[in-house]
Design a protein that fits this description.
Distance between the termini: 13 Å
GO cellular component, one term: plasma membrane
Number of domains: 2
Transmembrane segments: 30-50, 70-87, 99-121, 127-148, 160-183, 189-208, 220-237, 249-267, 288-311, 323-345, 352-371, 377-400, 471-492
InterPro entries: EmrB-like, MFS, MFS_dom, MFS_trans_sf, Sugar_transporter_CS
CATH topology of the largest domain: Growth Hormone, Chain: A
CATH architecture of the largest domain: Up-down Bundle
Largest sheet: none
Shape: globular
Pfam family, one: MFS_1
Protein name: Transport integral membrane protein
Length: 506
């Protein structure tokens, strides 16, 4: 079921010699990885850096509780909805070119968001960031995929990439706290400008790319069906909180979005130049990796939203202290990805890392279901962060590496886009769905325990925490399903030279 011929060509390629036709590895490839990692870090940071700043931005711009999630969802929705398009554009016109375009556009959108004077302007800027992020992220991952083909180098490179993908989100919370406290919440957006400038200069000097496949054409019907379906489904979940699950608009968006996605899959089977070639999804290792990533980020992104408000709103932490509180999770993700997964993936099957990783992450979220209004950081939050971070570190690196291993060069961009699509759509769905569940549970709890006087404030605090813990249970379920999915679908052998990742285990 895998792309055996091109994968085999990569795995059995002889070591380059002076007379060989095989292209020698770029001697500056590790410096190129630094540039790619910097760009990826910027994209991942922006999924969470505004979380810490959200209470300040909400107050400054007059956002409602129902609308505040759009600061996050507008970014992840545009990002996830357009990634397939961005990945295919990278394949058609060249990855280095789209990489640089994405960096420049992202910086411009960040400047607009930092200068926002109304909620609508901020939401629009965040959506524009998502649009350019959808061009940038698949270009970055596909440049890595085509640069690092040696199994040992690939393990190290994807260990770094996996650590950034997981820890970058948590590091964004710390950076957001520092900038919000010592500068202004707007600097959570302005900070992207110097990062993008450095990455553009590095890309121009260090990155190289093969020419795009100009003989292919863009699948316009596929863009309309696929992107439209993704946007409709996530928007439907978001509107369920203020309108209710039985609202006609919500039902229309959800069922209409699903219908568009079904039509998208049917169209891809007969399109001459499909946006998403179905051969990519027919490989069970890739499909299992995509599904695992989506389910994992449902719980992870919801956690970031809730814990930010829990730490600041319930425990009274400052933005900086809240950011520091997430630092152990970042360290745990980095250790799991670079010191465990990167070392073991060449020797053990990918699912031997992904299944335990998801079980560890689920156990971390399980600890958080026991939160109360007076829970201590050391006894409840820290253990949960360490378990969740280690689990994510074990999972993300093999997901990235397995999903992109042995892919055809002309499909590198769109395959990379599917990995990012899984992550971003899972994140936006998780944020929208879990926020809806939490808000509804909180409202129900307060209405059932309503009192007067000083006791009402305590009831409100208890109701908020009750909503968070209710929603986190759904995150636990998502992680457990991810463990089952990776265990059943991902059958790739170890990625060492003698046992390629693309081969199914027999």
């Amino acid at each position: 079921m895998s792309d055996s011929s091109p994968a085999e060509a990569i795995r059995t390629a002889p070591a380059p010699t002076s007379g060989s036709a095989v292209e020698a590895p770029d001697p500056r490839r590790w410096w190129g990885l630094v540039v790619i990692a910097l760009a990826q870090l910027m994209v991942v940071l922006d999924a969470t850096i505004v979380n810490i700043a959200l209470p300040s931005a909400q107050k400054a711009l007059g956002m409602t509780d129902g609308n505040r999630q759009w600061v996050i969802t507008a970014y992840t929705l545009a990002f996830g909805g357009l990634l397939l398009l961005g990945g295919r554009i990278a394949d058609l016109v060249g990855r280095k070119r789209t990489f640089i375009i994405g960096l420049v556009g992202f910086a411009v959108a960040s400047a607009i968001g930092g200068a926002a004077g109304s909620p609508g302007m901020l939401f629009g800027a965040r959506a524009l960031q998502g649009v350019f992020g959808a061009v940038l992220a698949p270009s970055a991952l596909s440049l890595m995929t085509t640069t690092f083909t040696d199994p040992r180098e690939r393990g190290k490179a994807f260990g770094i990439y996996g650590a950034i993908a997981g820890a970058g989100a948590a590091l964004g919370l710390l950076l957001g706290g520092v900038l919000t406290s010592y500068a202004n919440w707007r600097w959570c957006l302005y900070v992207n400008i110097p990062i993008a400038a450095v990455a553009v200069i590095g890309a121009l000097i260090l990155l190289h790319d093969r020419p795009g496949h100009s003989e292919s054409r863009l699948d316009v019907p596929g863009v309309i069906l696929g992107c439209g379906g993704l946007v409709a489904v996530v928007y439907g979940f978001s509107e369920a909180e203020p309108r209710g699950w039985g609202d006609s608009l919500v039902l229309t968006l959800l069922f209409g979005g699903l219908a568009l996605l079904v039509a998208f899959v049917l169209w891809q089977g007969k399109a001459k130049h499909p946006l998403l070639p179905l051969r990519i999804l027919s490989d069970r290792n890739r499909a299992g990796s995509f599904l695992t990533m989506a389910l994992a980020t449902i719980g992870m992104f919801g956690l970031f939203l809730f814990m930010t408000y829990y730490l600041q709103g319930i425990l009274g932490y400052s933005p900086v202290r809240s950011g520091l509180a997430f630092l152990p999770m970042s360290a745990s993700i980095i250790i799991g990805s670079t010191q465990i997964s990167a070392r073991l993936l060449p020797r053990v099957p990918a699912r031997a890392l992904m299944v335990p990783g998801m079980l560890l992450a689920a156990s971390g979220l399980l600890v958080l279901t026991q939160l109360g209004v007076d829970s201590a950081y050391a006894t409840h939050i820290l253990p949960a962060e360490l378990l969740l971070g280690l689990g994510m570190g074990l999972t993300f690196m093999p997901v990235f590496s397995t999903a992109t291993h042995g892919v055809r060069p002309q499909d590198a961009g769109v395959t990379s886009a599917m990995v990012n699509t899984s992550q971003q759509v899972g994140g936006s769905l998780g944020t929208a769905l879990l926020n809806t569940i939490a808000t509804s549970a909180t409202a129900t709890y307060i209405s059932e325990h309503r009192t007067s006087g000083a006791g009402m404030r305590q009831v409100a605090r208890e109701g908020i925490v009750h909503g968070y813990t209710n929603a986190i249970w759904w995150g636990v379920a998502a992680m457990l399903i991810a463990a089952v999915a990776s265990g059943v679908l991902v059958v790739a052998r170890p990625q060492g030279r003698g046992a390629p990742a693309g081969a199914a285990a027999h």
